[in-house]
Design a protein that fits this description.
Layout: E1 5-6, E2 8-13, E3 24-26, E4 32-36, E5 52-56, E6 59-62, H1 66-73, H2 75-79, E7 87-93, H3 99-103, H4 115-129, E8 133-145, E9 148-151, E10 167-171, E11 174-178, E12 183-184, H5 188-200, E13 204-207, E14 210-214, E15 217-228, E16 235-245, H6 252-255, H7 260-283, H8 296-300, H9 302-306, E17 310-317, H10 324-337, E18 341-342, E19 348-350, H11 352-376, H12 389-404, H13 415-443, H14 452-461, H15 500-518, H16 540-555, H17 568-577, H18 581-632, E20 643-647, H19 652-655, E21 663-667, H20 668-724, H21 747-764
Parallel strand pairs: 2-6, 2-17, 7-16, 7-17
Antiparallel strand pairs: 1-18, 3-4, 4-5, 8-9, 8-12, 8-15, 10-11, 13-14, 15-16, 16-19, 20-21
Helix pairs in contact: 4-5, 12-13, 18-20
Length: 765
C-alpha cells in the first residue's frame, strides 16, 4: 500500500417483517440506498421540504448471514495483519440496530458468531499456515463508560486491579492506553477465554427499544508480531487490529430512559457527536486542526480514524418506517466516513539483539579483510582488540611525558590507541581545572555570579575587587537584575491532580459494577440470581422468537390459574414445550453440534492411534528386513536386478543414518516400506492438526451450550413468577405490548404495589 485510500463503508439492515419498501429502496449495483418521503401537505403550496436522498456506499448487506458479513467486511483486513498492516473495524448505528450482534454475535449459537470471534479464528489459522514465521499474539479489551476508561480484563486472576487510572498517551509510535493490561495468547482457547471474560464485565441496561443495550463503547485490540525463522534478519513486522463496538445513539423520547440509564445515554450521545465532528474535520481537506481530544473515544481512536490504518465501517440501520429519521442520520454519518482517507503502511521494526549480533559478525569480517589487506601491503598488523589495563597505563605514561617535554611524539598504531590518547588529554585538563579552582578558593572568597542574594549582601558591605570596582558590577556599572519564578522550571507544565469529581465517578463506577452483579440497585431487571450483566444481545432467531411469543400470547386463551402453583419440574417441562420451545430447540442444536464435534474428535483420535500403530509396525518390519540384509552380507557397490540404489543421506529422515557418503542398496520391498513410512508420518501430522482444530471448536461450542442453558433457566424463572405469583389484577400491566415488558419488574416489587393500592382505596373511602 503506502498511498492514501478512502475508508470502506458498508450498511447492514436489520431484518424485519415490516420493511418500508416504499420509502427505502436499494440500487441495482447493491451499493446504493435511496430514501423517499412524502411531502407534508400541511406546509402549504410553497413547500421546499426535501423528500429524496441517495447514499452511495461500498456495499449493502440486506438479509446477509454472519458468514457473508465477515467475508465482505473483515476477511481482507485480517489477512493483511501478518504483512504488517494495521486495521480497524467499527460498528455504528442506532440502539438496537444490531451492532453488538454484528461484532460479537450470539454466544448461544455457533453459526451466529460475529466478526470478533471469527477474527481470532482466522488469525490463529494463518499462524498455523505460516510455519516459517515466529508469530506472537497479544490482546487487550478497553471499555469507555461515561467518559472514563476501564480495563475489561482487569478481573483476570493473575492481573489484579490497576493502581494508576487508565489514560490516553501519545508518543512518536502512536496512541496507546497507559495502564491497560495486554495479555499473551499462545492458543486460540486462551484468546476466547479472555473474550468471554471481557464480555462478562461489560455494562448493559434495558429500555423500551433494546432489552440488552450496551451502555459503553468497547475496543478489542489484537496485537500481532511476526519474526522470520529462516532469515537472520533483525527486521520484523508488527500490526494491530482494533474491533470497535460503539454504543448506540438514542432518542430519549423513544427509549424512555430515566435515572442512571438517562445519564449513560447523555454521555453516549455526547461522545458520538464528538466522533462525528472529528469525521467531518477529517473529510475536509482544508482543515488543519482535527478535534481528537474532545472526548476519550476520539482520542483513543486517533490512529484508526486518520492514521496508518485500514478503516472499515459497518453502519447498522432499521428497515421500519418508524425509525426512518434515525436511519437517515446513520446514513449521513456513513457518507461522511466515505470522505475520510487513511495511509496504511507496513510497520517494520528492528530487533536490537539481532542487530548487535549482525554487527558483531560484520565487524569480525571487516577485521579479517583489514588484516589481509595489511599483509598484502607488507604493513604491520593493526590490533583492533579492546585495550587492556596495561596498555592504558602505558598510554597514560606517554601522554604525561609528552606534556612534560621528555617525549617528542606519540606513535599511533591503531584507532583505539588514538581514542585513548585523547581521553587521557581530557583527564589531564580536568585535573588542572580542579587544581586551579582549589588554589583560588584557598586565596579568595568565590561567589557564584548567579547567586544574586550573595552578590547583594557583598555590595552592601562595600567590598571591592582588584580593579577597585564594587563586587557585582561590570565596568563600574551595576547589574540589571530580572525577577524570575522559581516555582516552575522553564518549559515545565504544572501537574494536575485528580479532582474530587473524577474520584467520585471512579467510585460510582465500581459501585455500579457491584450493584449490577447483586441486583439490589436495578429497577429495570429482574432475576433470581441477579446476574443479568452476563446477557448479550439476542441474535436474529431470538428476536423473531420474542415477536412470535408476543403475537401468540395475544391469541391464546389463558386458562384459570391453579390455586396451588405446580412444581418447578412439571412447569419446566411445560415451559420447554410452549413458551420456551424455541430456546430449547436452539439448545438442542448447539448440543448436537457439540456432540458432533466430540464424535469427530474421538474418531480422529482413534485414527491417529491406528496410524501410530501402523507406523510402529512398519518401522519394525523395516528393521527386520535390514537385519536380514546385513546377515546376508549384500555388497554396497553392486545393485542386483530389480533394486534401487540411492544415497543414504537422502533417506536419513525416514530410515535412520549411517556413515556419510556411503550408498545403500535398497530392494523393492525396503523401498516400498520407506515410502509407506513417509506417507504414514504425513498422514499422522495432518490428522493431529485436525484434532487440534476440533478441540478449539469443542471448547467454543461448550461455552455456547452453557450460555444457552443459562438463558433457558432465566426465561423460565421469569415466566414462572409471572404466571403463578403476580396477582391477576396486575396481569394487564405486564402483558406483551404494554409499557412494562416481561421480566422488567420483579415479583417483590409488584406485591407491595398491590398493598399500596389497597391502602389508597381504603383511605379514599
Amino acid at each position: 500500500m503506502g498511498t492514501r485510500r478512502k475508508a470502506r463503508v458498508f450498511v447492514r439492515v436489520r431484518p424485519t417483517s415490516d420493511f418500508a419498501h416504499e420509502m427505502i429502496r436499494y440500487g441495482d449495483d447493491n451499493k446504493t440506498i435511496n430514501i423517499h418521503l412524502k411531502k407534508d401537505t400541511r406546509r402549504g403550496i410553497v413547500n421546499n421540504q426535501q423528500t429524496h436522498w441517495s447514499f452511495k456506499l461500498d456495499g449493502v448487506l440486506h438479509n446477509a448471514s454472519q458468514d457473508v458479513v465477515y467475508e465482505t467486511v473483515a476477511k481482507d483486513v485480517v489477512s493483511q495483519a501478518l504483512s504488517g498492516y494495521n486495521g480497524t473495524i467499527m460498528c455504528y448505528g442506532q440502539t438496537g440496530a444490531g451492532k453488538t450482534y454484528t461484532m460479537t454475535g450470539a454466544m448461544e449459537n455457533y453459526k451466529c458468531r460475529g466478526i470478533l470471534p471469527r477474527t481470532l479464528q482466522q488469525v490463529f489459522r494463518m499462524i498455523r499456515e505460516h510455519p516459517t514465521q515466529a508469530i506472537t499474539v497479544h490482546v487487550s479489551y478497553l471499555e469507555i463508560y461515561n467518559e472514563s476508561l476501564f480495563d475489561l480484563l482487569s478481573t483476570v486472576p493473575y492481573v489484579g486491579p490497576s493502581v494508576t487510572p487508565l489514560t490516553v498517551v501519545e508518543n512518536p509510535q502512536g496512541v496507546f492506553i497507559k495502564g491497560l493490561s495486554v495479555h499473551l495468547t499462545s492458543q486460540e482457547e486462551d484468546a476466547f477465554s479472555l473474550l468471554f471474560e471481557g464480555e462478562t464485565n461489560r455494562i448493559t441496561a434495558s429500555h423500551t427499544m433494546n432489552k440488552n443495550s450496551s451502555r459503553s463503547h468497547s475496543i478489542f485490540t489484537i496485537y500481532v508480531e511476526a519474526h522470520s525463522q529462516t532469515l537472520s534478519d533483525e527486521k520484523y513486522v508488527t500490526s494491530k487490529i482494533n474491533l470497535v463496538d460503539l454504543a448506540g445513539s438514542e432518542r430519549l423520547g423513544k427509549s424512555g430512559s430515566e435515572g442512571r440509564v438517562l445519564k449513560e445515554a447523555t454521555y453516549i450521545n455526547k461522545s458520538l457527536s464528538f466522533l462525528e465532528q472529528a469525521i467531518i474535520a477529517l473529510g475536509d481537506q482544508k482543515r488543519d486542526h482535527i478535534p481528537f481530544r474532545q472526548c476519550k473515544l476520539t482520542h483513543a481512536l486517533k490512529d484508526s480514524l486518520g492514521g496508518n490504518c485500514t478503516m472499515v465501517l459497518v453502519t447498522n440501520i432499521f428497515g421500519e418506517a418508524a425509525h426512518l429519521e434515525e436511519t437517515l442520520s446513520s446514513l449521513r454519518f456513513a457518507s461522511r466516513m466515505k470522505l475520510v482517507t487513511t495511509e496504511p503502511a507496513i510497520n517494520e521494526k528492528y530487533d536490537a539483539e539481532q542487530m548487535v549480533k549482525n554487527l558483531e559478525k560484520e565487524l569480525a569480517l571487516l577485521n579479517q579483510e583489514l588484516a589481509i589487506h595489511d599483509r598484502l601491503a607488507n604493513r604491520p598488523l593493526v590490533n583492533c582488540d579492546t585495550l587492556d589495563e596495561i596498555q592504558i597505563d602505558e598510554i597514560n605514561s606517554q601522554v604525561q611525558r609528552y606534556l612534560k617535554g621528555t617525549l617528542d611524539e606519540i606513535d599511533i598504531l591503531s584507532f583505539g590507541q588514538m581514542q585513548e590518547v585523547f581521553n587521557q588529554f581530557r583527564v589531564v585538563l580536568s585535573q588542572q581545572e580542579k587544581e586551579v579552582e582549589s588554589t583560588l578558593r584557598r586565596k579568595y572568597i568565590l561567589i557564584d555570579k548567579n547567586d544574586f542574594a550573595a552578590i547583594s549582601a557583598v555590595q552592601k558591605t562595600g567590598l571591592k575587587d582588584a580593579e577597585d570596582h564594587l563586587v557585582g558590577e561590570a565596568d563600574g556599572q551595576s547589574f540589571g537584575l530580572a525577577v524570575t519564578s522559581f516555582s516552575t522550571k522553564p518549559g515545565e507544565k504544572p501537574t494536575s491532580k485528580k479532582t474530587l469529581k473524577e474520584q467520585f465517578s471512579s467510585s460510582a463506577r465500581k459501585e455500579g459494577i457491584s450493584s449490577s452483579v447483586t441486583g439490589k440497585d436495578l429497577d429495570i431487571f429482574t432475576s433470581k440470581d441477579g446476574d443479568v450483566k452476563d446477557m448479550l444481545l439476542w441474535d436474529r432467531e431470538i428476536s423473531s422468537l420474542e415477536n412470535l411469543l408476543s403475537d401468540s400470547s395475544k391469541e391464546e386463551l389463558h386458562p384459570p390459574r391453579p390455586s396451588t402453583p405446580p412444581s418447578k419440574h412439571e412447569a419446566f417441562e411445560d415451559f420447554k414445550k410452549e413458551r420456551g420451545s424455541e430456546i430449547n430447540r436452539i439448545l438442542k442444536e448447539n448440543k448436537s453440534i457439540f456432540n458432533e464435534r466430540s464424535r469427530m474428535a474421538s474418531e480422529t483420535t482413534q485414527c491417529i492411534n491406528a496410524i501410530k500403530r501402523e507406523i510402529d509396525l512398519t518401522k519394525e518390519a523395516l528393521n527386520v528386513h535390514r537385519s536380514l540384509q546385513e546377515k546376508q552380507g549384500l555388497p554396497l557397490q553392486e545393485a542386483p536386478v530389480g533394486s534401487h540404489m540411492t544415497p543414504l543421506m537422502s533417506l536419513q529422515g525416514a530410515v535412520g543414518s549411517r556413515q556419510p557418503g556411503e550408498c545403500e542398496i535398497i530392494d523393492d520391498e525396503e523401498f516400498q516400506l520407506i515410502l509407506k513410512l513417509k506417507d504414514l508420518k504425513k498422514q499422522y501430522r495432518t490428522e493431529y492438526q485436525d484434532l487440534c482444530n476440533l478441540k478449539a471448536e469443542i471448547r467454543y461450542c461448550q461455552h455456547m451450550v452453557d450460555q444457552c442453558r443459562c438463558r433457558l433457566l432465566k426465561e423460565f424463572d421469569i415466566w414462572y413468577n409471572e404466571s403463578f405469583f403476580i396477582p391477576e389484577d396486575m396481569q394487564v400491566a405486564v402483558k406483551p405490548g404494554s409499557s412494562i415488558q416481561p421480566g422488567m419488574v420483579s415479583v417483590s416489587r409488584i406485591m407491595p404495589l398491590k398493598t399500596t393500592m389497597g391502602l389508597q382505596q381504603a383511605h379514599r373511602k
